[in-house]
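Action item from last week, closing it out:
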Amino acid sequence: MKYFFHPSARIEFNEAIGYYEDCQTGLGKDFAKEIFSTIQRILRFPDAWSIPCLSG
């Protein structure tokens, strides 16, 4: 299974990394590592989470 960021989400993600890095050196990097770690868990265990109900 592959993943990708929507272009708008990629921009927001990079802005968040910059924001956290401005708050504290290394925090942006830690944030990015946690996001990618979470993505890897989702890819490894895709059935571990329920599918959200999007109806009204």
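Closing note: The mean pLDDT is 93.
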